[in-house]
């Protein structure tokens, strides 16, 4: 159960995903600009730490390093899109090599035993 303290600490955690990074200001910043920049940077830093802690170490090694949580999520998505395409291609090649030979006297048991390794 989340306590009030914990809940407050997670508020605006997704700010970096909802709002673009405030533009860099040349010269002195107003208190509002400084506050917005600090909130966004904190949200980005915590979001990156949270995402990286959840992602498996095996997967983390294949994802390029990013400084923004939004970019890191895009990199993860791109990694899995290419992985899904490679998996689909591999499965299509394996399935296209199998023939159902019931007419030649082979039964269902032989056909099903040759497709056991296709679970993904």
List the helices and strands and how they pair.
Layout (H helix, E strand, L loop, with lengths): L3 H7 L4 H4 L12 H24 L2 H4 L8 H28 L11 H7 L6
Helix pairs in contact: 3-5
Summarize the structure.
The protein has six helices and no strands. The protein has 120 residues and is mostly helical.
Secondary structure tally: strands: 0
The class by helix and strand makeup works out as mainly alpha
C-alpha end-to-end distance: 35 Å
Whole-number count of domains:
1
Q: Which regions contain 5 or more consecutive residues with pLDDT less than 50?
A: none
- Which H/E pattern describes the elements? HHHHHH
| Helix content percent band | 55-70%
Q: Counting H and I runs of at least 4 residues, what is the number of helices?
A: 6
Bin the strand percentage.
under 5%
Give Rg in angstroms. 25 Å
Protein name: UBN2_2 domain-containing protein
Organism: Ananas comosus var. bracteatus (red pineapple)
């Amino acid at each position: 159960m989340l306590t009030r303290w914990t809940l407050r600490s997670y508020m605006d955690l997704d700010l970096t995903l909802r709002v673009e990074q405030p533009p860099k200001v040349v010269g002195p910043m107003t208190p509002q600009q400084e506050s917005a920049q600090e909130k966004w940077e904190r949200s980005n830093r915590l979001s990156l730490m949270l995402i990286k802690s959840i992602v498996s170490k095996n997967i983390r090694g294949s994802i390029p390093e990013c400084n923004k949580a939004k970019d890191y999520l895009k990199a993860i998505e791109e990694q899995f899109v290419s992985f899904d395409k490679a998996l689909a291609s591999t499965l299509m090649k394996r399935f296209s090599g199998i023939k159902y030979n019931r007419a030649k006297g082979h039964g269902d048991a032989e056909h099903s035993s040759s497709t056991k390794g296709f679970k993904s």
